[in-house]
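Hey team,

Sharing the histidine kinase run so nobody has to redo it. Sequence (538 residues) first:
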Amino acid sequence: MTTRADPSEVAGDATDAAKAAPTPEATGAAGRRTGRIRPMPWWCNMTLRHRLLILLLSTTAVVLAFQGFFSTRVLSNQLAEVHDQEMRFAAESIRQLLDGQPDVRARASSGVPPVVDPGAQMVATLLEPDGGRTELISQRGFHPELPSYAEALRLADSGEVRTSADSALTRQYRVVALRLRSSPEVLVVTDPDSLRGTARTVVPLNVAFTGAGLLLLGVATVVVVRRELRPLETMARQAEAVASGDLGRRVELSRIGSEVGQLGVALNRSWEAVQAALQARDASERRLRRFVADASHELRTPLQSIRGYTDLYRHGALPDTAAVDRAVERIAGETRRMSRLVEQLLLLARYDSEQLPERVPVDLGVLVRESAADAAAVQPDRPFEVEVADGVQVRGDPDALSRLVANLLANVRQHTPVEAGCWVRLRGEGGTAVLTVTDAGPGVPPDALPHIFDRFYRADPARSRASGGTGLGLAIVDTVARAHGGEAVVDSRPGEGTTVTVRLPRARRTDVAVLGLPAPGKTERVEEAHLAEARGAT
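Structure output:
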């Protein structure tokens, strides 16, 4: 069966197709939007030196050309005005002579030869109404075409000076006409337009001087621009070196007040910022790698111990309840050790990233007394001697400073026998708080002293692990001291004991007064007997 389409539907489809089809204008616009970028004009690819030179020379040439053109026109007009005045004066003098001395006209009319002046330029002629002409003054080689009597009358009535030319248009001359008062003749005076030619001779001179000036200007511009742009070329080389990885390059600044000097200052600041950012990134990456390496290294041993005991328990290798209890106790001990280790690592990571808590004035003497009492409670048999000066305040994190003092005393406890004495002293030296912890232990070997503040460093690894040490105690002391603007140093000799000295900047008096802390006073000496209460509590 054949189906016929509705004409209205066919027309509608055609209309829709026509609407959907892109028009040439739309296609062209889309082509322009999606087409390739047109190349830049040739002058945009030129160097700044060449563009400045071309711009300056072209601008100067145009200005000089206009100046030469208008100056020549002005000079020509002024010379023509002077020439015309001279012609009018000469014509008036001749007319007065003719009107006052009729014999002159009579002699000229009777055929007397005209006056010939070899040095004169003008020609004087009398025009009569009947067309006759009488030459009064002539010039060799100059025979101008004179106007008719009627034209001379009109020129005389107008009082103008007219420019005329010969039939060949090879020579121009000026024409002035005057009526005689005593007769109907008209005096016509003509003169070659030599002064305008004189003005035109200035044109080659202008061209020559303009060319010489442009040449000198071009040479001077090249020299000056090259000298002024030399710092920019140096900056470009420095920028290429920085882009190649040499971040220590800087621009030498000679004229900071100039635009080039300001650009150099901006480049140096930007390069310093980039270098600081890259250094901060590298330091952050080093801290992260160090933290991961330290954590993986130190957590490996307790994790292996915990895994070993759990494997023994899972395989039934623990024969009785007592063995299970010992295994659980060992697992708990290793867990506590890992907790301490993680806390210490987090503390070091926080200080490495400079995420410091808000600092407040802290009475360091109170922290020293409390830590000494805690140490005496842990080891009642160890001789302690504490000397604390009153009013030694610092500004910092109380928890971190308390950990610093506790780690110093824990280092004595872990690395010296119990019978070795310990002396703790706190004093103020001007604007510095000085804390020293001295023990009578075996001392530190000389080869171990340079590494005493390294993380996880142990002069005697077996003994340190057996005593529960993590190798981070003195590293935390050094990190906390530096974070508070101070330092920690160690002095030790084998067989003579070890002294650790921590120096911290003291708090300002205004901070102390705000918190109402005691002012600096005398030193309080706490002997071994005064720690008996702490030992008895143990």
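The chain has a mean pLDDT of 76.

Ping me if you want the raw files.
A.
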